[in-house]
Queue: 3 jobs
Job 1
Amino acid sequence: MFFPMPFNDEQVRVVQLLECSDGVVVQGPPGTGKTHTIGNIICHYLALGKRVLVTSMKDPALVILQDKLPAEIRPLAISLLTSEQEGMKQFMYAVEKIAAEVQRLDKLSLSREITQIENSIDAYHAKLVKIDNQIGEWAGKNLTPIELDGEILKPLEAAEIVIRNEQTASWLEDAISIGTEFRPRFSDSGIVRLRDARRALLNDLDYLGVTLPLISAFPDARELIRAHQDLARAAELQSQVDSGKVTPLADSSKQTFDAAQSLLSQISNLKLLYQFIQNNDDLNAALNYPDAQLTDSVHDPGQAWNVLTVGAYTELDEIRDSTLNGFNPIACSGGLSPFTTTSLTWENRWPIKPEIVMEGGNLAHDGQGFYDEGDDLSLLSTYRDPATSYFYSFNITSASTALAAWLASRIQKEYPDIWPETIRALMVHSAE
């Protein structure tokens, strides 16, 4: 049916009757859509390449019908019942319209478009047939009795049961049926026991089937701290890479990581040397251990007689950092730190400096001129910016002085009434 305007089954029936009859009579009172139906029938037969003659006793009826036609079809309808001049004017307009359309006509393109439209129509017809079949299937399901747990129920009765028990039932998204293979394999009492067990376990249910490690299997605190620092540093680096402050690595291959690690070791060594260069005596003491500790004098202002001079020793001589393979500690455990000097070269009548020594860290070397402080050979303290890292390694006499201040504060807390000079005396005379 080639109806450009809305239609109903009665209009379709008219065309079907015209296909097998010489004539059809359509009756109805005014306003029931007879003119609308005639307009659809005219368009249908024009689309099939046929000519349609419409007759009427009066001109107004033809004018109304012509106005009902779609704008694209209206120029093809010629009214010959008006004045001869008006009729010829409409006839000439129709001829010119048809001639213009014929000149612009692309038969091949229109043929392809017609074929596509016909295929689309056929597809919609097939879809309608499929929908009709599905509706029929659902109608059958809603009328066919079902057996559930040995009881015969009408679909309407089953739906009413579900609605009445809506609070105790919910939809299952799985594709299941009422077959025996989908029947529950547990009882109500089993569900109650399972619920009680779930309430007892609470969040511990996450550990079901998980074997907890022994305390002895955990790494020591220093390794955990190093892992935490590595993770914090990795997060910080990723943030800097995302913001464009740091250039990302070319790739994630082992060769690239090894090259980056080697470069990091060299940069660390250069930083350490730069720190030493700030004070040439520190550089000399570290690189000429242990002779420099005996021949180099205490640095300014530690030589003052009226101050408590704090030196550094170390018990850190174990290197577990895999990036420092081939490195060895300079000082042995219990020896002077490479970062300290003494007053051994002073005259005997002068005071002995330093008066006390505290842990100041150690230094590693590879025997080829490279040095590294390393976390294993440094002390641990809190970092100034917790958002970046919780902990930070430090050494040299800053570390030993911090430990001496901590010891003095403990004495002050224990004996709040004693003089600072007394605290100093207790620290010096209690040194081993």
Job 2
Amino acid sequence: MVRSSDMVLVNVNTDGTPASGIYLASSNVSSVVDVADMTAVGSVNTD
């Protein structure tokens, strides 16, 4: 169950350079969840 203000950690790219972020559930009405724009986390490995 996802409630308003829950955060979801996600992988959004697994076929190349890994990317991940956090989505914030802005509302949940009748089992329809709306999420805010993703906040990216991590950085590019420059080694």
Job 3
Amino acid sequence: MLELPQPLTNYCWDQIIQLDVDAALSEDLNGLNPDNDVTGQLLPANQRVSASLITREAGVLAGQNWFQQAFSTIDKAIDIQWNINDGESFKPKQTLATINGNARSILTSERTAMNFLQTLSATATQTAKMYHLIKDTSCGLLDTRKTLPGLRMAQKYAVHCGGGFNHRIGLYDRFLIKENHIMAADGIENAINKAHEINQIQGENSLSRLIIEVEVESLSELEKAINAGADIIMLDNFTPEQCREAVALRKQLYCSLPQAEDPSTLLRMTKIEMTGQSDIGQPQAEDPSTSLRMTGDGMTKEKNSAVMLSAASAESPAVILSAASAESKDLTRPTLPLLEASGNIDQQTILSYAQTGIDFISSGAITKNITAIDLSLRIDASGKR
């Protein structure tokens, strides 16, 4: 498993993975008893085999731990030898792993294990494609809550494997004030002020303060959100040109406030406070690490890896930490909110948005508009014993 970014380290991953796998195996076995695999009973009880996990297409791997848990839950004696790690690219016809063990156990676990690996690798691959398009900008790629039911945490991890970063995990770790909240609260200012009141009630512990994000649909709403003290403002269905106007308006409004510091400096400091990452807001310098580029032959390597960056950086460049959001935030000083673009942004348009000066782009497509990676598990006839 890759080193996790800060928002994901607060969870018990062994338990998450076990629960995911148990639920999936139970769908196949009507419980967790491997003897319920009636077709498996056709095989000799003690027959051992060797199998190869092969991919028919290019992609980025994610989900090794779920794959392994599916086998070990049925039979702890099954041995898996990997030729690749999560976050690394693979090409068509590549052997990803070799599995050795009891034939019944392997065939009982096979489909559940591959379902996880195919789906999570698809998420990582889709993320890597999007991230590659904006990797030379200062804009970060975020996921959303538009995940497959029951696989929220698994897909959040897969996004990390693909070089992307996590938005809020659920409804509990950040205020995200959207159109219907604004309507019910009788205005943006009222909604944001109420969120500030709730944060104040949490007391002096800065770790209790949640980020306040608000969705806006116009520049006039953006102005209200900035003046009310939102931490992050989501620009819903803005065009690239409107995003540029939003960036300019943010600077203009901030500079008019008393005690205002240099906006470029404070924006950088605000990102560091919220992410713990010091290289926010700057294109990554070239280094010996590699990144992924989709070609006709599959994933090839080039400089400046999204995946290597995510693997090497525990504090992800575009992750917004709910826990650390206010650790050094002085609520009495003017603050410079971060800007996030969202809504119908695809591979054709993402770069034009990233070049506007916004801080983040959030995309539901990287977790919901995915096609499972084509994998095959083949038993080696010569390896039967």
